[in-house]
Each structure stands twice: as C-alpha cells, then as structure tokens.
Amino acid sequence: MDYDSNHTSNHAEPVSAPVEKGARAEKREAQTIRILDAARNCFVQSGFRGASMNEICREAAMSPGALYRYFPSKESIIEAIAEQDRRQDLMNLAQMGAGATPLDGFIAAVMQHFRDVHERDMASLFTEIRAESMRNDAVAACCAKTEAQFIELFTAFLTYAKANGDIDPVEDIDAIVPMMMALGEGMIMGDVIGRGVPIEKIETILRAMATSILRPVKKQPENAG
Q1: Angle at 136 between CA 132 and CA 140, to 5 degrees
Q2: Do residues 216 and 209 lie in contact, with contact meaning Cβ atoms separated by under 8 Å?
Q3: pLDDT, tens only, 17-74
Q4: How far is CA 153 from CA 79, 106, 121, 212, 213, in A?
Q5: What is the rounded CA–CA span in Å between residue 68 and residue 187?
Q6: Where does residue 17 fall: left (phi above 0), alpha (psi -120 to 50 degrees), or beta otherwise?
Q7: What is the rounded distance in angstroms from the CA atom of residue 76 to the CA atom of residue 137?
Q8: Positive or negative CA dihedral for 187, 192, 194, 198?
Q9: Using an 8 Å Cβ cutoff, are 155 and 181 in contact?
Q10: From CA 94, how far away is CA 72, in angstroms rounded?
C-alpha cells in the first residue's frame, strides 16, 4: 500500500478519518455477509422463486428498510451470491499449478473444489443458480462470466502442460475443457460426497478419468542416458 509520506504521527485528524472509514467498511461487509448467508438458507429451503425478501429479512433478523439499504432486490442478492461463489471457486481451481505434476495439481484443485462445495452445502443452491440463469438475464450473465473464466483457466493450464510435454491429451484441448467442466458440474449437482461416496474413492475415479483423457507423459530424468 502506498502511504502519503507527508502524514506525521502528531497530527490526529488524518489518522482518525481512515480508521473511521475502515470501521464503517468492516461493518458493511459483516452485514453483507449476514444477508447473503441468510439468503442462502432461504434459497435452499424455498428455492429462488419461493423465497421472498420478507423471509430473508426474518432469517437475517433485519428490518426490510435495513436490508434494502444493502440490496434493492432479490435479484441483486442472487447476483451477489453467484459472484461470491465464483470468486471462491476460482481461488480453489487456481491452485492447479501447485502440484508436483500437472495431473496432481489438477486433481488436487478439483477435489478441493468438490470438498468446498459440499462443505458449503452448495449442491442444491448451485442447481438453483443454474435454473435461475435460464430465467434471469443478470444471473445468466454472472454464470456466463464464471464459465468463461473457468474455460480460460483450464485451457491455459492444459495448453501449457501440453506445450511442456507433460500431457498428450486424447483430443483437442478446446474440446476437452467443456466436456470436463460438464462432468464436474454433474458431480456437483449430484453431490456425490453427500450421497456417501468416500472422498478417496472419488479421487481415485477422478484420477483414472483424467489420466485417460489427459494422458500424462512420463519424462526421463535429465541426467538419464
């Protein structure tokens, strides 16, 4: 952060103003999270169409007037939830490059994504978001933005791995990426973890599928020969 070097420690006013502003920002952030958490609960219980703003107010223990200062409509809450989830999902999947091999990194990132979705009880809400995107242009735009970023992330990762000689995929990456994303979405909506399939078995099956599609290349040590 770039601080103004002209500020001195014995001048109270420039110091107190940012602190107050920061406190207001923290309070607003806390209230926003409170509303979104309440809305998630309502949407899971009643669906996007069934849940009302009054129901969300009751769940958040806030008056309608207070809630509307943060979100003017149910659609704006839906957009905020979709955007919040998009950021979290991208953070999980961005860890792909941290593995010992591209395949290891891919499996670790996707498994973390599945765990996080399950722990946040997102299976039903994810399905609701997808359904709402077919009726609501704002939510559809948010989903399209998320999908485009996922495609860009996966494509760049696999393209680099292929160019580096780490994988020899069975088909063009542009065809593989949307197929793998569709499989991932199906696993999320089906909540295979919630159905009792052990994590280690999911990972074993996922690794077998990814291995057959991406075909990792076993490289010889540099000093071999």
Answers
A1: 80
A2: no
A3: 454 467 778 888 889 999 999 998 898 888 888 889 999 999 999 999 999 999 998 8
A4: 22, 11, 25, 21, 18
A5: 36
A6: alpha
A7: 12
A8: negative
A9: no
A10: 33
Closest CA to 110 of 210, 216, 195: 210
Closest residue by Cα to residue 154 from 89, 82, 80: 89
Residue type, 137: D
Mean pLDDT of 182-204: 88
The residues near 103 (Cβ < 8 Å, ≥ 6 apart) are: 166, 167, 207, 210, 211, 214, 216
Phi, then psi, of 167 in degrees rounded to 5: -135, 155
pTM of the model: 0.72
Place of tokens 């709402």: 132
Interatomic CA distance for residues 108 and 218, integer angstroms: 19
Which of these, 125, 132, 133, 131, lies nearest to 41 by C-alpha position? Answer: 125
Euclidean distance between CA atoms 79 and 77, whole angstroms: 5
In angstroms, the Cα distances linking 31 to 19, 23, 34, 71, 83 are 18, 12, 5, 11, 17
Distance CA 127, CA 111 (A): 19
CA distance 223 to 225: 7
